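Weekly structure sync, notes
Attendees: PL, DS, HV (note-taker this week)

Item 1: DUF1579 domain-containing protein
DS walked through the input record. Source organism listed as Parerythrobacter lacustris. Sequence as pasted into the shared doc:
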Amino acid sequence: MTRPAAFALCSLAALFTAPTAAQDAPAAPPLAEVLASQVGEWTGTLEYRDYQADRWFGLPMRVTVADGGDGVTMIRTADFDDGLRVGVVRITTVTMLGEDGSTEYSVGFRKGRVPEVSSARLTLAAWSDDAHWTILAEETATDDDRPALIRETIVRDGARLTTLKEVDFTDDDAAEWLVRNRSTLDRVDG
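Item 1 (cont.): predicted structure, written out as C-alpha cells:
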C-alpha cells in the first residue's frame, strides 16, 4: 500500500473511532442538582418596564437562596427597595421540585398580600456545568389580573444569574410575548 493510501485509510479509521464532542461532553445532572447551584447570596437589580413611559426602571435587590435540606426544596428571600412610600419589600418563595423531576411547585409570600400558589414546567435548555446553564419555566396563570402564559428564562453564567419574565395574555387574539420584568444578580458569597 502506498504511503498516501495508508494515511487516507488511517484517517478514515480515526473518523469512525474518534469520540465525538457529544460523547466527550458530560451528561447534564437532574434539574434538582442544577437548581441547587443557586444556593447562596446574590445582589443586583430588579427591572421592570413601564409601558406608558416606554422605559425600564431598576430597583436594587438582594436575594438569598437556601437549601431546604431534602434535595428538592429551596427557600428564596428577595428584598428590593420600592421607594420612600413603600420601602423595602420582601418576597419569600418556597419551591419544591415534584417527583417527575420537572414540575416545580411554589408558594410566594409577601406582606399584605394573599400567598400565591403556582406550578411551572421546567426544561433544562442548556447546560455545560453547574455555573453555566439555562432553564425555561413555563406556566398557565394570571398576570395583571388577566389569564396568561408565563415564561421565565433563567440563565446562570458563572457568578451572574439573570431571569427574564415574559407574558402572553390569553384573553386576546394576539399571540405575543411581552417582557414584564428581569433581574440581574451577581453572586456575593463566592
